[in-house]
Amino acid sequence: MKKSTEEKINTQDEKPMAVTYEIAIILETAKDEPAIEEIISEIKKQITDLGGEINEVKSAIHKILAYPIKHQDSASYVFLKIRIPGAAILDIQKYLKERNQVLRFLFIKLKIAKIKIKKIKIKTAKPQTITDQTEKTAKGPKNLIETTIVKPKPIKETKVSIEELDKKLDQILDAEI
Known about the structure:
- The structure is a single chain.
- The protein is 29% helix and 33% strand.
- By secondary structure, it is an alpha+beta fold.
- It has two domains: 95 residues, Alpha-Beta Plaits (2-Layer Sandwich); 43 residues, no CATH class.
- The chain is rod-shaped.
- The N terminus is likely disordered.
């Protein structure tokens, strides 16, 4: 039974697909350390309000910029790893654009590596024992190699009657006593 377009849209709205992103945010350093931490906590709150979860936060790193951004020569870099539905990204971008303390930001979509496991068949060689038989293999006088190859001897099967076994057993027991 095929689903109509409306049903597909409704099921997608009910279970939004969460995607993992890394966000790089460049903040003004004119603010002191507690103010930067406050800005980061506000950004985290906005992400969680939109249905996202924060996996990792790398604290602010102060750097001198290669060129001025909004008349700032230095800035603080903050990196967040988040998991959020794709539709909420636009709302976060809008929020970050409205913040005066945010100089730049960049969203990077992270792909999760899929590991493929291959089954490996291991072939084992038959066990060999050393005997007096030697086989010489050589390709020339310099490459003379002696190897010993074991060839198992076949076991001879002989049928013995029960009476013969009893006699042999009696002989062994009498010899021990």
